[in-house]
Amino acid sequence: MSRRSIQSRRSTFVRFTTIFVLLSCMLAPVLQSQGKPNPLHTNPLNLDPVVREGFQHFYILDYEGAITRFESILASHPQDPMASGYVLMVLVFRELYHQDLLDTTYYAHDSFLTSKRNVPIPAPIRDRIEALNNTVANLCEQRIKANAADKDAYFARGYARGLHAAFITLVDHSYVAAARQGLSARNDSEQALKIDPDYADAKMAVGIQQFAVASLPRILRMMVGITGVTGNREKGLDLLRECVAHGTITSVESRTVLSLFLRHDARYAEALVIQHGLATEFPRDYLYRLEEANLTKDAGNGPEAIAAYKSVLADARKPNFFIDPRLQLAWFGLADTERGQNDIQSAAQHYLEAADQPKCSDWLRRRAQLNAGQMFDLLNNRSVAIRNYQLASAGGGDQSQADAARKYLKTPYTGK
Hints:
The chain has a domain at 1-265. The protein is 69% helix and 0% strand. It contains 19 helices and no strands. The chain has helices at residues 3-23, 49-59, 63-76, 81-98, 123-146, 151-172, 175-195, 203-214, 218-226, 233-246, 251-264, 268-281, 286-298, 302-316, 327-340, 344-356, 362-378, 382-392, 402-410. α2 (49-59) packs antiparallel against α3 (63-76), α14 packs antiparallel against α15 (327-340) and α15 packs antiparallel against α16 (344-356).
């Protein structure tokens, strides 16, 4: 086997592993289990009333309300790594949300791994994220040195590593580092389970990696197996189900990952059952409502998906129903679905609606403009198509759509 071939396969392994690291975090705000948590198998801080209240705010995407509460917990528990982990969680998800990166349609294919997209994160926020991640690592290392059986420290470190892996992948495109952190998160979680087999929250990272490795192409599974890392798809799903049933702070998160993995395997009916349950249980969670519409679209039920997107948009018009809904995601999903239903006129208008949203990221705006241009080409409205291609390929800002837009400036899009 040539060196180039080996390097290519290693790169593919890194990308596949990274995809599943990301899936562990997409749309996955953490909430306490709906059952009665067992204080013997979780960090006692997870049961603090202020912590639980912070999660409640986080779960309706009220990031500011959540971070206020978690900062107060950190101030009163500076030596507990989970306190830093809570703040890290909110900061990471808030930034990904503001960058339109929490819509799972972006990850339906691995093309996002080669995206030229630039993700601008304010320097003070980036510095805080890195500092919190380092704080968790340092505190956990100190605690583990003092007590090798500190299951809470192993879990906290693994959890922070998973969050940081998602951040550096999407923001910095650091695929190798993210894959390593994902595997390290699994190792930390496995260590926590060796100490306490009933530490259910730790089963999530192990389940994710079990499924991820088993989902690799055969040659890559063999290469990974040499390093001692193994995988089993159904075992991974079972571990996630156990976490759903018994987890303290990863129960709902594991339901989300289950839905995503089932979606990956085109098991849409099963995924929809889970996602519908989440959307029904948390109707003010904009992302869960959006994901149910996305899944309905992927399952091939275009008319029902269109109705679901329109329902989300209708609820968004109700005062204070959603907190800071990124409506461009719903408009874009609606337009994509209408496109699939050959309703080209509606798709064109709704891509423009997505692009016109005041909080739309430059990246998603240009994607919408490119797609709008394609629709107007199909409608034989070349002048409007050209105007949108020009916007999508304009200098400055995001350039990930520029090459395709310039192509269609020269030759009209024909739908092939």
